[in-house]
Amino acid sequence: MPAPSRHSALLTDLYELTMAAAYFEDNFHPTASFELFVRSLPPQRGFLLAAGLDQALDFLENVRFSAEDIVVLRRHPAFTRVSAAFFDYLKDFHFTGEVWAMPEGTLAFEEEPLLRVTAPIIEAQIVETFLLSTLTFQTMIASKAARVVAAAQGRAVVEFGSRRAHGPEAGVLAARAAYIGGCTGTSNVEAGQRFGIPTFGTLAHSFIMAYGDEEESFRRFESLFPDHAVLLVDTYDTLAAIETIIHAGLRPRSVRLDSGDLVELSRQVRRRLDQANLTDTRIFASGELDEFVIADLLARGAQIDAFGVGTALATSKDAPSLSGVYKLVDVDFGEGPSGRVKLSEEKATYPCRKRVFRMRQSDGNYSGDIVAHESENYPDAEPLLNCVMRQGSRLAPSPRVQEIQERARLELSHLPEPHRRLQGAARYPVRFSSELERRLEEIRTRFVQPVGKPDSG
Amino acid sequence: MPAPSRHSALLTDLYELTMAAAYFEDNFHPTASFELFVRSLPPQRGFLLAAGLDQALDFLENVRFSAEDIVVLRRHPAFTRVSAAFFDYLKDFHFTGEVWAMPEGTLAFEEEPLLRVTAPIIEAQIVETFLLSTLTFQTMIASKAARVVAAAQGRAVVEFGSRRAHGPEAGVLAARAAYIGGCTGTSNVEAGQRFGIPTFGTLAHSFIMAYGDEEESFRRFESLFPDHAVLLVDTYDTLAAIETIIHAGLRPRSVRLDSGDLVELSRQVRRRLDQANLTDTRIFASGELDEFVIADLLARGAQIDAFGVGTALATSKDAPSLSGVYKLVDVDFGEGPSGRVKLSEEKATYPCRKRVFRMRQSDGNYSGDIVAHESENYPDAEPLLNCVMRQGSRLAPSPRVQEIQERARLELSHLPEPHRRLQGAARYPVRFSSELERRLEEIRTRFVQPVGKPDSG
């Protein structure tokens, strides 16, 4: 289980704090709504799976400035003119806002809010950096995992990437997100403890090398882990190691292939194991795998029962970032929300608090989403954003990660195949309601600057 | 300053613990040496800058199993046959080994050990996952940062990528590594506090959008931060915002361009600022920058004084992982070290504890490295691996991050230009000593398996 503890409010970008000081000194305290969404899907991706909300909400409930944090800010050269009252405000700072979000495991697409924060503007700004990195990272990994799992066509995929993740904590969070995306488990023991994810391990080359004698090391390992031994067979020569296992009378649960031509080797290994009546011994493969390699191995007839996937999964190697943004959509000075939008975008973003509705075809499969103004309703469609936090407190405990994984599995089962393709996925239809279009036009007209361009002035 | 505290030993892969149990139950306790290195440099990279050692050593000094951690393992299905004595051993587990490493900020190349652990084999195995993710992540980011900084040709580069990093903690570590690689600072306030890195902030679109009136928001911000205001000018229309600044009589320290054609816009903005006697107002640019975009902007005459670089830097987007490995190189049962090597590699790796020597040309520039057996010495070359930890305790406090940055700067100044090119960098010469080649051959002969291949048996 996650251990809730104080989260430092310094896990933010400095400009959030300089802006906070400016708002404070100016007595500028509207309620602001920010929406977090992904601008566009990375190449090859036909969908996203929302993930990371539990960690985001844990942060919002526990974010504080410690006395030391405040000392650091007071000494910062940018803050020399900031009043003592602001630092007093930080002493008592906590998040008091409201949050709407897609449940973890929900299919999401470009430009759809994954989460909305409505809070006093200072609070809503300060939490931006943490929310973005938490939600977009886990969403990215869960989405990648779903692709790898799909490529494996029902075979188990275990997340093995902690050693290549972006630091130890990234490894733990990647394991959680990969499980949400459909992995059977992870090698990361901390993730197992913190989130209740099944953990799996095999055997490293170093074990065999340390003993020096391959047969001896296999015997030792299998005697201690008779039901769990996955014997790694490529330390010296894969096929020779299989003969060693057979001649020694060992009956490992699995053998792991980690190098060489996995199609040819797996077929030869399967044949030899079957000839020796080791028909229950499964073949586990690893070694720089990703969804494309796995799909290719299976298409070429590899006899592999399960996969360990590391770097490609824990870093989303082919697309290691999502274009996540957190945009101010309205401010409210007590007279009702007033929509906001940035006009310099290459592509319009829409003002106002939104709802997202998902529609289904007659066969139950998803046919498209509508992003609408919060005042709108589409009674035949499913609304995807739920209120999950009010006045800074969660409305319900987060679901267990197993439930989230199950939700993701169900969601994917309703996504038509063209959007699930590994390559050339069809774009899922997401449209903005005409009410939102109308509000955008209204703001465009209102905010166009009166000052002339240099050439004209 | 980093807060040393207990690090959970569960930040590891499960197989490290199953192997540990197997070693323990078998009373197999040699001293083992593992070397951590990067197999090959990513595309476009001509060098690496070693980073992350401080966090690695902090982990080694503080890694422990809590009572809860042990409960988790006892309940794990793989451990049902493991004796109570093993769990008692874990209760007192701490790292007692010796560590040799390259100082942070040292230039490193493929196949050169960045770090060597010599410890009882169980200890050396359990720490593998943490060491790999910590050292390879920071090394990757520091190396990327050096490229971005080089592209900026002396202009400041500020790391802005926390929101796109792989979780909040990855953002903090990326900020540290980016600073080592030559960045002027970071936007990440926690990194500023923890490591003493300068932090910088500008202004977000949301601030301007919240006020609605761009001029009003500029005035407010500049009045509070007269020496630090970086006014963001692209919320509505960049050139119109510059006219607003001029007509309002503001004198911002900088203006930030975040979208549009940065070459054309920066030249127009510079011209208008200069015409209005705002010659001290600098132009800061951001928005999906990397080393290639920056080099191109400057080559095309952009008038930019400083850069904010986010996603590309904090995720090393074009190469988001390094092929870091941690290889057993020898074991010692009390009769002296016996070399170990895995023979299934496509490319040979070398057995035995090693030293790395760096040679210089007559002009002082580096001419190539030799990876040698630890018994060898090259008196005219500089040895790069130092003993940094004995019996689990650091021999000296880690240098301050400013010293590390300075070391990296000096190192890079001695690297001939062909290895520093952004594209098509020349391969730096790294050769293995003939003594190591001899030892490899010796082991190849000894470890070739006597069992025949299936076709021949």
Q: In words, what does this structure look like?
A:
2 copies of one chain form a homodimer. Helix content of chain A is 38%, strand content 19%. Chain A is of the alpha/beta class and 457 residues long. The first copy, chain A, has 2 domains: 7-141 and 341-447, nicotinate phosphoribosyltransferase (Alpha-Beta Barrel); 142-314, Aldolase class I (TIM Barrel), CATH 3.20.20.70. A 7-stranded antiparallel β-sheet of chain A has the order 15-14-2-7-5-19-20. In chain A, strands 9-8-13-12-11-10 form a 6-stranded parallel β-sheet. In chain A, helix 7 (168-180) links the parallel strand 8 (156-159) and strand 9 (185-186). In chain A, helix 2 (53-62) runs antiparallel to helix 6 (128-151) and helix 11 runs parallel beside helix 12. The first copy, chain A, starts with 6 loop residues before the first strand and ends in a 10-residue tail after the last helix. Chains A and B meet through helix 1, helix 3, helix 6, helix 7 and helix 8 of A and helix 1, helix 3, helix 6, helix 7 and helix 8 of B.
